[in-house]
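Write out the 3D structure for:
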Amino acid sequence: MPLITSKEKIRKILQSSKSIAVVGISPEPSKPSYLVSEVVKRYGFKLFFVNPKYEGTVILGERVYRTLLNIQEEIHIVNIFRRPGDVVFIAEEAVKKGFKTFWFQPQTLNKDISRRLSENGYNVVKDYCLKTACIELL
C-alpha cells in the first residue's frame, strides 16, 4: 500500500481496526502518548501499551508490555510515540509480530522506514494525530 493520506481511506482503516499498540506510552497524564490514548480508548479500541521502562505496570487500565512481540493478541495499528531514530527496531518487531497499519504520530516520522513499509505492502499514516483522526473521522 502507498502512504495513506486520504481522510476517507484513513476513516476506513479506523473503522476496520479493533486493536492498537501504542509504542512509547507514558504514565504521565500530561504526555502526548497518554492524552492521545485516553481519547482513542473512548472510541472502543483495544489498546496495548509498549514501553520497556514501564513493563508490567498498568496505565489507563491496561498492562504495559516490554515489546510488541510480548503481545499475544492481534494488532491492527502500531501507533508510534518515539523519536524517528528509534523507529527502526520497532518496525522490525512490528513486521515479525504482524500488523496492518503503521501510524507515525506528528514528529515521529522516519522516512526510510515509512518508505520500506509502504513498499512491502503495509499501510502507513504519517503526521496525523490518531486522537485527531478519531475525533474528525469517527
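The chain is about 35% helix and 20% strand.
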